[in-house]
Each structure stands twice: as C-alpha cells, then as structure tokens.
C-alpha cells in the first residue's frame, strides 16, 4: 500500500522480480477492503507492505486494524516502509504485535526478499537497526557534496528506482537512456 503511484509500481516490479504476486492499493481503506474480499473467498495474504505516511489511515493504523480482523484465515506478516525523516515512526518495540519489521526507503530488492522470506517462514524478524548496520558504505552516502553520477538505463522503472536511491544518497544524477546520450552527457561534463 502506497499513495504514490510510482512507488507502488516500483514495489510491484521488485516483488514480481522475486517471483511473487502482489496486489497494489493506494490507501489504508483500500487495503482493508482487499484483505476482507480475499478473506471472504477463503484466501489469505502472506505479507502486507504498508507505507507509513498516508492520507487517511496511515500504515500503522491500517496494521492495527488488520491485527484486529479475527476472521482472517491467518494474520499476514506486516512490513512498514518509512522514508528517513525527523518524524520516523515509533520505535519497533512500541509497535510489537502490530508491525513485524520497519524498513527505510529506498528498500533494496535483496533486503525485501530476505525480510519476506524470514517473516513468511516464521523465523524471528531482523530489526531495522540491524538492517541499517548491514548496509554498505555506498548506501550511507560517504560521497563528497556535489558528486555527480551519470546513470545510463533504458528501462523507465529501473531508471526511477536508481534515480531515487542515488538522490537519497545526496548525489546529483544525470540520466541517459542510451549510449548516444551517455557520450553527449560526458561531453557536457568534461
């Protein structure tokens, strides 16, 4: 669940790349409706990925309501996704029993995969702080201010994912869709 259409599309493509089927919705209310409809047909949802900041029902309130749905065939694992900000969601220990794991944007496909496998298999979840410790130096933006990156990617979805990750690392990004644009971009920067 995410109110941003591009974020939904990126997440759906990341899940599809992992061989998983997913349904995307744009609000907490739509999530509750989709879960109820699926439950009424006897099918369950293994995992629910919720954006924290949403108009109407936010991710935490949506998760609380899902946890209160006693008629579900089984409770889903619930992941809350948050952008780093001063207003980060409450600490994970305060969300115990409601949210299984909090992940911070941008979420890498490998992190998403590991987290989903862990939660769905019933293994204890890895906390967000442990996941942050596992990130590489390049993800923590050790780049000097003003560092420019030339991104060459012809797939719009991959381009948008990379663009968001690189910008979140504080990098200035120049986008090229093909080799000709790469050469043109390099000429402009030299």
Question: Can you give a write-up of this model?
Answer:
With 190 residues, this protein is α/β, with parallel strands linked by helices. The chain has two domains: 5-135, 3-Layer(aba) Sandwich (Rossmann fold), CATH 3.40.50; 140-189, no CATH class. It has helices spanning 5-17, 28-40, 59-67, 109-121, 128-133, 156-168, 179-189; strands spanning 47-51, 77-83, 101-105, 148-152, 172-176. The chain has a three-stranded parallel sheet with strand order 1-2-3, with helices on both faces. A two-stranded parallel ribbon has the order 4-5. Helix 1 crosses helix 6 (156-168) and helix 2 (28-40) runs parallel beside helix 3 (59-67). The longest helix is centred in the first third of the chain and has 13 residues, at 5-17. The N and C termini lie far apart (43 Å).
Q: What are the defining features of this structure?
A:
2 domains; elongated; two-stranded parallel ribbon; alpha/beta; 7 helices; 190 residues; three-stranded parallel sheet; 5 strands; Rossmann fold; single chain
Set out the fold topology.
Blueprint (H helix, E strand, L loop, with lengths): L4 H13 L10 H13 L6 E5 L7 H9 L9 E7 L17 E5 L3 H13 L6 H6 L14 E5 L3 H13 L3 E5 L2 H11 L1
Parallel strand pairs: 1-2, 2-3, 4-5
Helix pairs in contact: 1-6, 2-3
What's a quick, concise take on this entry?
The protein has 190 residues and is α/β, with parallel strands linked by helices. It has helices spanning 5-17, 28-40, 59-67, 109-121, 128-133, 156-168, 179-189; strands at 47-51, 77-83, 101-105, 148-152, 172-176.
């Amino acid at each position: 669940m995410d109110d941003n259409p591009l974020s939904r599309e990126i997440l759906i493509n990341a899940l599809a790349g992992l061989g998983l089927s997913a349904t995307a919705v744009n609000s907490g209310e739509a999530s509750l409706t989709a879960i109820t409809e699926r439950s009424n047909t006897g099918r369950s949802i293994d995992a629910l990925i919720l954006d924290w900041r949403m108009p109407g029902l936010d991710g935490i309130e949506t998760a609380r309501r899902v946890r209160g749905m006693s008629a579900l065939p089984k409770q889903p694992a619930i992941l809350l996704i948050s952008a780093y900000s001063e207003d980060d969601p409450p600490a994970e220990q305060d969300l115990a029993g409601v949210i299984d794991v909090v992940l911070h944007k941008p979420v890498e496909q490998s992190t998403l995969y590991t987290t989903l496998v862990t939660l769905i298999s019933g293994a204890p979840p890895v906390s967000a702080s442990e996941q942050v410790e596992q990130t590489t130096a390049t993800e923590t933006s050790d780049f000097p201010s003003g560092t420019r990156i030339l991104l060459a990617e012809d797939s719009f979805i991959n381009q948008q994912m990379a663009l968001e990750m690189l910008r979140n690392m504080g990098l200035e990004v120049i986008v090229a869709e093909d080799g000709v644009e790469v050469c043109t971009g390099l000429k402009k920067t030299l």
